[in-house]
Amino acid sequence: MTQLFTRAGTARTPNCVGGYTYTAKCTRCGGAGGRREWNHSGYVCFECGGNGIGKVKLEKLYTVEQNAKLDAVAIKRAEASTAKANAKEAARVAALVAQSAVFVAEHAEFIAKLKSFDGDFWAGFRESFLSRAKAPTERQIALVDGEVAKRAKAPSRHVGAVGEKVTLIITCNREVRIESQFGVTWLHLCSDDAGNTVTYKGSAEFLREGNTGTVTATVKEHTVYNGVKQTVIQRPKLV
Fold first, then answer.
1. Where are the beta strands (DSSP E) in the chain?
2. What are 79-110's pLDDT values in tens digits?
3. pTM
């Protein structure tokens, strides 16, 4: 006689047509017939009447080959379900990334101002604003613009360390043409969002007078001119 098994792999001898029947324990009391915590309303389990006997259940039985086929089908179904879930999650993440990119592009100027502010308060403000991805309110705009104006009035400070590569959002306030035997160079007198004076002298492509942009450059030196601290940059590149 061919040996049969449950889906869990337990060997059983059929006792009815189609499988193996057995009487299960009561699902409420676990076969005990009652519980101490029920004493206030009567110890006896109302589900089984105190005998601990549950319903008669039928357990289907299978050959080794049948179980193997069912296992293969279950594995394939699980893999398909996992792939579907992964694809759905990837699509969700891609949509969030796309939405974030659109949001950042739409509010680039406001975000650039936030990034120019240091301090724990502004770091938390910036993180909260980006995570919520909602357009700035009039109150937020007024707060940020007020901080920009406040910092613009602050005394100039040196930016970065000499030899350090920095990324700055600066405005070119004035261009000065300098001619020599070696050709023409330009002196650009600029300021960053915090009101610090930044200068660049050279012939590389740079911001024109009155324009604002993001620039990466190396700090060449820190100087003081007429009592104003200036940061001299070199090898600038417009972002």
1. 4-5, 11-12, 19-25, 53-60, 165-180, 183-192, 197-202, 212-225, 228-238
2. 999 999 999 999 999 998 999 999 999 999 99
3. 0.41
**Alpha-carbon span 30 to 38, nearest angstrom:** 14
pLDDT of residue 154: 66
Look at phi and psi of residue 103 and say left if phi exceeds 0, alpha if psi is from -120 to 50, else beta. alpha
Strands in 80-205 per DSSP E: 165-180, 183-192, 197-202
Task: Report the pLDDT averaged over residues 170-192.
Answer: 89
How many CA atoms within 13 Å lie on the side-chain side of 180? 7
Predicted confidence at residue 118, as pLDDT, reads 74
Reported as type and span, the H/E element at residue 145 is helix 138-153
Residue 78 sits at the vertex; the CA angle it makes with 74 and 84, to the nearest 5 degrees, is 145
Mean pLDDT for the stretch of residues 17-43 = 89
Amino acid of residue 86: N
Using alpha carbons only, give the angle 57, 61, 63 rounded to the nearest 5 degrees.
175
Rounded Cα distance, 100 and 133, in Å: 7
Other Cβ atoms less than 10 A from the Cβ of 213: the count is 16
Would you say 233 and 199 are in contact if contact means Cβ atoms under 8 Å apart? yes
CA distance 96 to 69: 41
